[in-house]
Specification:
Layout: E1 8-11, E2 16-19, H1 27-39, H2 48-68, H3 70-83, H4 106-123, E3 129-133, H5 139-158, H6 162-176, E4 178-186, E5 189-195, E6 200-201, E7 215-222, H7 223-231, E8 248-258, E9 267-274, E10 280-285, E11 292-294, E12 300-303, E13 309-313, H8 327-330, H9 332-355, E14 359-361, H10 395-398, E15 399-401, H11 409-426, H12 428-431, H13 440-450, H14 452-479, H15 482-489, H16 495-513, H17 530-533, E16 539-543, H18 552-566, H19 574-585, H20 590-593, H21 604-673, H22 679-705, H23 707-713, H24 722-730
Antiparallel strand pairs: 1-2, 2-11, 3-16, 4-5, 4-13, 6-7, 7-8, 8-9, 9-10, 11-12, 14-15
Helix pairs in contact: 4-6, 5-14, 9-11, 13-18, 18-19, 21-22, 23-24
C-alpha cells in the first residue's frame, strides 16, 4: 500500500496524479524500474518460472488475436489479388480452352485517385505539423508556437522514409481501410515503422483502439540484426545458436499487460519473443514513475501505458469495431462482378471471331475430284481456292457455320452500370469535370456535393495525422533536453519584431522628451526553455493542412466564383481576390506573380493638411501642458497659505489659553487675601471682571479666523498677505 501522506497530489479531471518519490513505489516495482534503468532489459531480472509463465500468457494471447483475424485475413488476401490484378483460378477451359483471365485495375485506379489527392494536401505544405495556441493573442505565445512547430517538423525530417511511408500508407489505406504507424524514441532521435492492415495483430472484436490491451507485430531479423541487439544488450540470446550462413527468424513484439511485481495489478510491458520457440529475448516496461495514478487514499488506480501505435481509418465499420473499411473491402463484390463482365465480353468477342472460321462441310457435296481429300480444308487469306461442285448443287447448302452472336447490348449495359456505380464513389475526378455552358455557381454546388464522401474520409485521415503529431510532441517533451531543443530549432527573434521594438522605443523616448507621461514598451523575450514551451494547457497540435476547407477542387471553385462576382464591382478588394485565387491554385512564389500594391504618393494638398493637423495637435499639447503647470502652481500656493493660516491659529490659541490661565491664578490669589465678610461682593466684582476679559478675548480669536477671507476681499487679492490683514483688523475703529 502506498502512503498517501508522502505524495504530492495534482488534480486532473478524472483522477489525481502524484509526483512519485522512489520510497512510495512498492519495493519490487521500484527494484524492477531501477534494474531497467541500468540494463535496458528485464529478462535477466526474472527467474525461469516467471519467464515460462509470461511465455505461455503472451503466446496464448497472440493465438487468440490471430484467430479473431482469420476472416479478415481471407478477405485481405482476396482484396490484395484484386488490387494487384492477380488471377488465381489457373487456366480456364470454359467457354473454350484458354478463355480470358483478365483483371481490370478499377480498384487500383480508385486507390491512386485518393492517394493523388490526399498526399499533396499533407506534403505540399511548408510545415507538416502546426501548433495553435488558445487564449488572447500575444507575441510571446506566437514565438512559443513557432518554436514548438519548428522542433516537431525538424524531428519529422529526421524520421527515415517518413514521406515514402505516407505515400504507401495512403494508397494502402484506400484499399484495405486501415494502417498503423509505430513511433518510438531511440538513440536520441524518433523512429517510425509503417504497419499495413494485416501486420498489426490484435483483437478485431474491440471497439476502441486505445483500450486494446494486447497489440503485436512480426519482426523479421537477419543474422546481423539479431547479433547487434544481443551484443548491445537489447536482446537476450536464444537457446538455439543461429546459423550465420542461412538465418532469418521471426520475432514477435507484443505490447501487453503483466503483473511481474505481484502487486495484483497488471502493468504495461513490451515483450519480444521468438515465434518458433516462444523464448523471450526482451522485456521492458512501457511506463514510468510519472504514469502511475492513485486515489485520495494512496491506492494505485491505474498506470498509463505509453501508446506506440497510431491508428488511421478510412471508413468506419457498421459493427462499431476498429477494423476500418476500404474501397476494396466495401466494394469487393462489385469489383469482382466488373471483372467477370469484362472477361465475358472478351470471351464473347473471341467466340464471334472463331465462329466466322468454324463449321461443318458435307463431304458428298465436294464432288468426285475432291472426295478423296481427307482432314480439314485450309483457306488462305486473299486467295480463292478452286473447288469442283456437282451440277445443280450450291456451296452454301453444303456448308454449316457455327452461329455466334458476339457481345450483346445487355452485357454492355450491365457492365457500364456497374462501372458507373463503382467509380461514382471511388473516382472523384469523373464527378468534378465541368460541363459545357455551366455557370460557376452551379459547378461549385455540384463539385461540393460530389466531394462529400471524399471530404469525410479526408477528415478521418487528418484525425490520424493529428494523433501522430501528438505522439511526436509526447516524445520530444519527454526525451528531448534543452540543449538538443535549442540546437534543433536554432531560433532567433524575428528581425521584424526587433525593428518594431526599436521603433516603439524611439517613440517612447520622443514622447518623454516632450514631457508626456507614457508607458515604456515591453521588450520581447530572448530566452526560452523546452519545458516552458511544451505546455499542453493552452496548446493544440495538428497538421498544417486544414480539412475543413475541402479539396483542391472546392477551394479553386470558391476562388473562381469569388473572382467572377467581384469583376467590375468596386466594393471588392481586387488584390485580395486575386491573391486568394492564386493561393487556391497553389502557384509558388506568389509575391513574384502578384506583387503587393504600392501606396500612391500623397498630393501637395494632403501634405499641407497633414502639416496643419500636426501643428494643431502640437498647439493643443502646449496649451494642455501650460494649463497643467498653472494648476500645479496654484495648488502649491494654496497649500502654502493654508499651512500658514493653520500655524497662526495655533499660536494665537496657545497665547489666549495662557493669558486666561494667568488671570485665573491672579484672581484666586486676590480672593485668598480679602476677608470672608467682604469676599462675596468683591467676588462678584471679580467675576464680572473676568467675564469682561473673556468677552474682549473672543473678538480677537474671530479676527484670526477670518484673516484669509479678509485677504481675499482686500483690493489687489494676493497682494495683501496674512500679517497685513491681521494688522488692519487690530486697528481701533473710530
Amino acid at each position: 500500500m502506498i502512503d498517501a501522506e508522502s505524495v504530492t497530489v495534482l488534480e486532473t479531471p478524472t483522477a489525481q496524479i502524484i509526483e512519485i518519490e522512489q520510497t512510495i513505489i512498492p519495493e519490487k516495482t521500484s527494484e524492477l524500474l531501477d534494474y531497467y534503468q541500468e540494463n535496458d532489459n528485464l529478462v535477466q531480472f526474472l527467474d525461469d518460472k516467471q519467464l515460462s509463465e509470461i511465455q505461455d500468457s503472451v503466446s496464448r494471447g497472440f493465438d487468440d488475436d490471430e484467430e479473431s483475424m482469420a476472416s479478415f485475413r481471407r478477405l485481405y488476401k482476396d482484396v490484395m489479388d484484386l488490387a494487384t490484378m492477380k488471377w488465381n483460378g489457373g487456366q480456364k477451359d470454359f467457354p473454350f480452352q484458354g478463355a480470358s483471365t483478365l483483371m481490370m485495375p478499377y480498384l487500383a485506379q480508385a486507390a491512386i485517385d485518393f492517394n493523388s489527392r490526399i498526399v499533396p494536401e499533407i506534403l505540399n505544405q511548408r510545415d507538416v505539423f502546426k501548433v495553435r495556441l488558445f487564449g488572447r493573442e500575444q507575441k510571446e505565445k506566437e514565438f512559443r508556437a513557432e518554436r514548438v512547430s519548428l522542433a516537431m517538423n525538424a524531428a519529422l525530417s529526421q524520421i527515415q522514409d517518413w514521406e515514402e511511408n505516407i505515400d504507401i500508407g495512403m494508397y494502402h489505406l484506400a484499399i484495405f481501410g486501415m494502417i498503423f504507424k509505430k513511433t518510438w524514441w531511440y538513440d536520441g532521435v524518433i523512429h517510425q515503422d509503417l504497419l499495413l492492415a494485416d501486420q498489426l495483430i490484435f483483437d478485431h472484436k474491440a471497439h476502441s483502439f486505445s483500450k486494446i490491451e494486447r497489440k503485436s507485430h512480426i519482426i523479421t531479423a537477419s543474422y546481423n540484426d539479431y547479433m547487434e541487439k544481443v551484443l548491445t544488450g537489447q536482446w537476450a540470446a536464444v537457446s538455439n545458436e543461429p546459423d550465420e550462413d542461412n538465418y532469418s527468424c521471426e520475432f514477435v513484439e507484443t505490447h501487453c499487460l503483466l503483473d511481474i511485481d505481484d502487486d495484483g495489478y497488471l502493468e504495461p510491458y513490451i515483450v519480444i519473443w521468438d515465434k518458433s520457440s516462444s523464448e523471450i529475448v526482451s522485456l521492458v516496461p512501457r511506463y514510468g514513475e510519472d504514469d502511475i495514478v492513485i486515489d485520495d487514499d494512496g491506492v494505485i488506480n491505474s498506470i498509463r501505458g505509453e501508446e506506440f501505435f497510431t491508428h488511421y481509418m478510412f471508413i468506419p465499420p457498421a459493427d462499431g469495431t476498429v477494423v476500418g473499411k476500404g474501397w476494396g473491402t466495401v466494394l469487393k463484390d462489385s469489383f469482382e462482378a466488373l471483372n467477370v463482365h469484362e472477361r465475358q465480353l472478351i470471351d464473347a468477342a473471341t467466340l464471334n471471331i472463331i465462329a466466322a472460321n468454324s463449321g461443318f462441310v458435307n463431304s458428298n457435296a465436294l464432288g468426285a475430284a475432291n472426295r478423296q481429300k481427307k482432314g480439314t480444308l485450309q483457306m488462305t487469306m486473299g486467295h480463292y481456292e478452286p473447288l469442283q461442285i456437282g451440277q445443280g448443287q450450291k456451296l452454301q447448302d453444303m456448308i454449316y457455320q457455327i452461329p455466334a452472336a458476339g457481345p450483346t447490348q445487355g452485357m454492355l449495359t450491365m457492365k457500364e452500370s456497374l462501372k458507373e456505380s463503382v467509380t461514382t464513389y471511388t473516382t472523384v475526378s469523373q464527378a468534378t469535370q465541368p460541363q459545357a455552358q455551366e455557370a460557376a455557381a452551379m459547378f461549385m454546388a455540384r463539385v461540393s456535393e460530389a466531394l462529400k464522401v471524399n471530404n469525410a474520409i479526408k477528415k478521418r485521415v487528418f484525425r490520424g495525422l493529428t494523433r501522430e503529431a501528438e505522439r511526436v510532441f509526447y516524445l520530444l517533451d519527454n526525451y528531448l533536453d534543452d540543449e538538443q531543443y535549442q540546437e534543433m530549432i536554432d531560433w532567433e527573434l524575428p528581425q521584424a519584431i526587433q525593428r518594431q521594438y526599436q521603433e516603439a522605443q524611439a517613440k517612447y523616448e520622443q514622447a518623454r522628451a516632450q514631457g508626456m507621461m507614457v508607458e515604456p514598451p515591453m521588450p520581447p523575450s530572448q530566452g526560452f526553455e523546452k519545458d516552458a514551451d511544451f505546455d499542453l494547457d493552452d496548446m493544440d497540435i495538428g497538421p498544417t493542412a486544414d480539412p475543413s476547407q475541402g479539396s483542391t477542387e472546392e477551394r479553386v471553385s470558391r476562388a473562381m466564383a469569388l473572382l467572377e462576382i467581384s469583376r467590375d464591382n468596386p466594393l471588392y478588394n481586387a488584390y485580395e481576390v486575386n491573391k486568394r485565387v492564386i493561393e487556391a491554385l497553389g502557384v509558388p512564389s506568389m509575391e513574384q506573380v502578384l506583387p503587393e500594391p504600392q501606396p500612391s504618393p500623397p498630393s501637395e494638398m494632403e501634405i499641407m493638411q497633414a502639416k496643419l493637423a500636426q501643428a494643431e495637435i502640437e498647439r493643443h499639447m502646449m496649451i494642455a501642458q501650460a494649463e497643467l503647470l498653472n494648476a500645479e502652481t496654484r495648488a502649491k500656493e494654496e497649500a502654502r497659505k493654508e499651512k500658514e493660516i493653520n500655524h497662526r491659529i495655533a499660536l494665537e490659541s496657545t497665547k489666549l489659553q495662557s493669558d486666561i490661565e494667568n488671570k485665573d491664578a491672579d484672581t484666586m490669589k486676590k480672593l485668598n487675601d480679602i476677608d470672608m465678610a467682604t469676599a462675596l461682593p468683591k467676588a462678584d466684582i471679580l467675576e464680572r471682571k473676568v467675564q469682561e476679559d473673556v468677552e474682549q478675548a473672543i473678538p480677537m480669536q474671530e479676527t484670526v479666523e477670518i484673516d484669509e477671507t479678509m485677504a481675499m476681499q482686500v483690493p489687489g487679492g494676493d497682494a495683501l498677505d496674512i500679517e497685513q490683514a491681521a494688522i488692519v483688523e487690530e486697528q481701533p475703529t473710530p
